[in-house]
C-alpha cells in the first residue's frame, strides 16, 4: 500500500472516530438534558396533583371521618379530566397498594409502587409498546388515609428526537467523511509528492543515470531531505567518476607498463639470441652486449621507480626542519661530475618542513628530466627563493619544451612527451609521477611553465 493511501486511511479512521464519538456525545447530551427537563416537569406535575388531591379531599363533607374509596375515585376522575389536554394518566392505590382508580392506558406494573413509602417520591422511565413514559409515584396523606398517587407522562417525543439526531448526524458524518476523503486525498498527494520524486530519482540512479537530480518542491523536512539526497547524489557521481578515472588510469598504466617492458625485453632477447646462436666479430658482440646492458639498466631503473611510487603511496612523510643549504649542497655534489651539461645553483638560505631524502629525490628527478630534454652543453638552472606562502624550488632548462595539451598528462606513470628521445636516454616516464606522489605527501604539487622550443620551468612550494 502506498504511503499516501496509508496516510489517507489513517486520517479517515481518526476523523470517523472523532466524528462518531463527538456526535454520540452531542446527541446524547441533548437527549439527557431534554429527558431531565421532562422528569422535572413530571415530578412537578406529580406534586401539583398530590396537592390538588389533598385539597379536594379536605372539601369532602365532614360526615366522613375516613375518606371513602368512592370519593377517592371521584376525585381521581376529576383530576384526570382536568388534564386531558396533556394526556395525563394517573393511578390511585390504597394503603395496601391495591388499585382504587386507574386511567385508561395506565398498564404498567407495580414495581415502582412497591418501592414507594410515605416519605419517598420515586420515578422511572419505562417503555410500553413503541412509547416511552416517565412513571412517578408519591404518597398522599389525607383524612387519616395513606394513598399512593402514580402518574405517567408521555416522553416519546424526546426519544424520537434522539433517534432523529442520531440519524441526521450519521448522514452528516458520511457527507463529512466523503468530503474529508477528497480533501485529504489531495493533501496526502501534495505532502507525499517529495517522496514520489525521491522514489523516481532513486530508480533512475539505480538504473545508472547518476546525473539525475530530484526536484525540491518544499522547504520543510522533506525539502531538506531532497537537498540532502541531491548532495549525496553529487558525491556519489563524483566518486563514481573518480573510480572510473582510476580504473581507466590503471588500465592505461598496465598497458603502458606492458608496452615499456615489451620493447626492451624484445631487444634483449633478440641480441642475446644473436650472441648465443651466431659467431660475431668483436665489434658486433660489444654492440649487442652494450645494448643488452643499456636496456637492462633501463628496466632496473624503471623497477626502482615503480617501487618508490608504490612505497610513497602507502606511507606518510615524517616532516622535519630541513636547511635549504644542505639540499643544494647535495645537488651540487651529485651533478658535479656531469660534463655534458652546465648547472647553475642559486638559492636563499632558509628552513623548510620536509623529509630531506624525498625532496632530494624530487629535485634529482626534475634535474634529470631537464637534462634529457636539453641538448648537450645546455644550461640547467636550479633556484630557490623565499616567498610569502613558503619556499619555492625551481628547475629550469632551455630544451625542447612541453606543448600545453601535454602538460597536465606528464605526471602520469609511463607518460612521455617524446618517447623516442626519452628511451634513448633510458627514460621510462616514471620520474614526474614519483615527484607528484612525493609532493602530495608534503601537501604540495608541481607547477609547470613551458613553451615548445624555448624550455621548461618546473617548480614547487614547501611550507616553512
Kindly report the average pLDDT value: 82
* CATH class label of the domain at 3-166: Alpha Beta
Structural class, judged by helices and strands? alpha+beta
Q: Assign a percent range to the helix content.
A: 55-70%
Largest sheet, in brief, is:
5 strands, antiparallel
Computed Rg:
57 Å
Q: What is the name of the CATH topology of the domain at 3-166?
A: Beta-Lactamase
* Helical run tally: 12
Biggest sheet, spatial arrangement of strands = 2-1-5-4-3
- CATH architecture label of the domain at 3-166: 2-Layer Sandwich
Shape: rod-shaped
- Tell me the total number of β-strands: 12
Name the CATH homologous superfamily of the domain at 3-166: PAS domain
Sequence of secondary-structure elements: HHEEHEEEHHHHEHEEHEEHHHEE
Low-confidence stretches: 416-428
Calculate the terminal CA-CA distance, rounded to whole Å: 65 Å
What fraction of the residues are assigned to beta strands by DSSP? 15-25%
Amino acid at each position: 500500500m502506498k504511503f499516501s493511501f496509508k496516510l489517507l486511511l489513517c486520517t479517515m479512521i481518526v476523523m470517523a472516530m472523532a466524528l462518531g464519538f463527538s456526535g454520540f456525545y452531542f446527541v446524547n447530551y441533548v437527549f439527557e438534558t431534554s429527558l431531565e427537563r421532562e422528569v422535572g416537569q413530571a415530578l412537578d406535575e406529580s406534586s401539583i396533583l398530590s396537592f390538588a388531591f389533598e385539597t379536594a379531599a379536605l372539601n369532602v363533607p365532614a360526615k366522613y371521618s375516613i375518606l371513602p374509596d368512592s370519593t377517592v375515585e371521584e376525585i381521581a376522575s376529576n383530576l384526570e379530566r382536568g388534564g386531558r389536554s396533556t394526556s395525563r394518566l394517573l393511578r390511585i392505590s390504597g394503603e395496601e397498594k391495591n388499585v382504587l382508580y386507574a386511567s385508561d392506558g395506565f398498564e404498567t406494573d407495580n414495581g415502582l409502587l412497591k418501592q414507594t413509602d410515605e416519605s419517598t417520591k420515586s420515578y422511572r422511565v419505562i417503555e410500553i409498546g413503541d412509547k416511552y413514559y416517565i412513571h412517578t409515584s408519591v404518597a398522599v396523606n389525607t383524612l387519616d388515609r395513606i394513598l399512593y398517587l402514580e402518574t405517567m407522562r408521555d416522553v416519546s417525543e424526546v426519544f424520537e428526537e434522539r433517534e432523529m439526531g442520531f440519524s441526521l448526524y450519521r448522514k452528516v458524518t458520511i457527507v463529512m467523511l466523503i468530503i474529508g476523503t477528497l480533501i485529504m486525498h489531495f493533501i496526502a498527494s501534495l505532502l507525499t509528492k517529495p517522496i514520489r520524486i525521491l522514489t523516481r530519482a532513486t530508480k533512475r540512479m539505480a538504473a545508472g543515470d547518476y546525473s539525475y537530480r530530484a526536484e525540491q518542491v518544499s522547504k520543510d523536512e522533506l525539502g531538506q531531505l531532497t537537498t540532502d539526497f541531491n548532495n549525496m547524489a553529487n558525491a556519489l557521481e563524483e566518486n563514481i567518476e573518480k573510480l572510473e578515472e582510476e580504473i581507466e588510469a590503471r588500465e592505461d598504466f598496465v598497458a603502458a607498463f606492458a608496452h615499456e617492458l615489451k620493447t626492451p625485453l624484445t631487444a634483449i632477447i633478440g641480441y642475446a639470441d644473436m650472441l648465443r646462436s651466431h659467431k660475431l666479430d668483436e665489434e658486433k658482440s660489444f654492440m649487442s652486449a652494450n645494448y643488452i646492458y643499456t636496456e637492462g639498466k633501463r628496466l632496473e631503473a624503471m623497477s626502482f621507480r615503480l617501487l618508490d611510487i608504490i612505497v610513497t603511496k602507502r606511507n606518510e612523510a615524517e616532516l622535519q626542519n630541513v636547511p635549504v643549504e644542505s639540499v643544494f649542497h647535495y645537488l651540487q655534489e651529485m651533478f658535479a661530475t656531469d660534463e655534458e651539461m652546465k648547472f647553475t645553483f642559486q638559492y636563499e638560505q632558509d628552513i623548510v618542513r620536509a623529509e630531506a631524502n624525498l625532496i632530494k629525490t624530487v629535485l634529482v628527478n626534475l634535474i634529470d628530466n631537464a637534462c634529457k630534454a636539453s641538448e648537450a652543453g645546455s644550461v640547467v638552472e636550479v633556484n630557490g627563493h623565499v616567498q610569502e606562502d613558503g619556499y619555492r624550488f625551481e628547475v629550469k632548462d632551455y630544451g625542447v619544451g612541453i606543448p600545453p595539451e601535454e602538460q597536465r598528462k606528464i605526471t602520469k606513470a609511463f607518460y612521455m612527451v617524446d618517447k623516442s628521445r626519452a628511451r634513448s636516454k633510458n627514460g621510462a616516464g616514471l620520474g614526474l609521477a614519483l615527484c607528484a606522489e612525493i609532493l602530495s605527501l608534503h601537501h604540495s604539487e608541481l607547477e609547470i611553465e613551458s613553451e615548445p622550443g624555448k624550455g621548461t620551468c618546473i617548480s614547487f612550494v614547501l611550507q616553512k
